[in-house]
């Protein structure tokens, strides 16, 4: 037994989480996401198998995902930055409102029912998937991103939704940027930088949001599982550069279709979980 988990079950869990980390790292570099969209559902299933209480299972998966995203986002952002694809001016404009949104989302996490997290996941991933798979250049809100308060409002929305989904913001910022005339490659690269801005305050916020909650496993610090963090992070760091290289090698349409299919599968998984 280790942390109250039978060694056989622990070995199976470790193998699954290591594989998930490898896939998450590739996705982080490829799509400019922190890998949370794959990590959250996998952690959710792992915590279910371990008997973690239903009331804390989803926020624990989300908080742990945000912690895992920190090193993944650093690796992904550095790779895209070296290729000169990141819009640094946009990142600076979004930094403060994104952090505000993340902190609000972390506070909501302490009191929200599990279905709230799943519904946010479904709505954002579902719309983004439809847009990527079936949209075209006429699907635009404007020819460029707005200025002033509306741009800051976009940033706050990205931070809030990302904190409730346990993602690095790539799904949402990619969607917003491409709807405003930005190319998918620049959107992916800039989203990698957002992952870093979101994940650090998000993980800290979830530690405090879950502090003292009943039903958490013995390795948890608030809504962050140390075991999940330690098992997933190593492989994400190893494989993130593979995704970065793929992102800059693939043509625009191939990248959009791949991202759209990926998001559709994530969305379907959480639709099923609501009715389980």
UniProtKB/TrEMBL annotation:
Membrane-protein topology: Multi-pass membrane protein
Keyword field: Cell membrane, Membrane, Transmembrane, Transmembrane helix
Entry's localization field: Cell membrane; Membrane
A Pfam family recorded for this sequence: TauE
Cellular-component GO terms for this entry: plasma membrane
Keyword Membrane: yes
Transmembrane segments: 12-44, 56-74, 94-111, 116-134, 154-176, 188-208, 220-243, 255-275
Xref: InterPro entries: TM_pro_TauE-like
Family label: Belongs to the 4-toluene sulfonate uptake permease (TSUP) (TC 2.A.102) family.
Protein name: Probable membrane transporter protein
Naturally occurring in which organism (per UniProt): Salinarimonas ramus
Species classification: Bacteria, Pseudomonadati, Pseudomonadota, Alphaproteobacteria, Hyphomicrobiales
């Amino acid at each position: 037994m280790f942390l109250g988990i039978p060694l056989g079950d622990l070995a199976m869990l470790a193998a699954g989480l290591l594989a998930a980390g490898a896939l998450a790292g590739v996705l982080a570099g490829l799509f400019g996401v922190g890998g949370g969209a794959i990590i959250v559902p996998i952690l959710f299933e792992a915590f279910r198998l371990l008997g973690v209480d239903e009331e804390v299972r989803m926020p624990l998966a989300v908080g742990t995902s945000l912690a895992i995203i920190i090193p993944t986002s650093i690796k992904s952002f550095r790779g895209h930055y070296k290729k000169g694809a990141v819009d640094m001016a946009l990142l600076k404009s979004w930094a403060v409102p994104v952090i505000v949104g993340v902190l609000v989302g972390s506070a909501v996490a302490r009191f929200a029912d599990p279905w709230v997290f799943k519904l946010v996941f479904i709505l954002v991933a579902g719309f983004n998937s439809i847009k990527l798979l079936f949209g075209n250049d006429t699907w635009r809100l404007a020819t460029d991103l707005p200025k002033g308060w509306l741009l800051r409002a976009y940033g706050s929305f990205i931070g809030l939704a990302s904190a409730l989904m346990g993602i690095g913001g790539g799904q949402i910022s990619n969607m917003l940027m491409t709807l405003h005339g930005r190319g998918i490659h620049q959107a992916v690269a800039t989203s990698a930088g957002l992952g870093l801005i979101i994940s650090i305050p998000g993980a800290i916020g979830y530690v405090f949001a879950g502090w003292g909650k009943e039903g958490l496993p013995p390795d948890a610090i608030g809504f962050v599982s140390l075991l999940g963090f330690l098992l997933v992070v190593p492989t994400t760091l190893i494989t993130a550069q593979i995704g970065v290289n793929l992102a800059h090698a693939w043509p625009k349409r191939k990248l959009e279709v791949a991202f759209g299919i990926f998001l559709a599968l994530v969305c379907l998984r959480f639709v099923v979980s609501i009715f389980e």
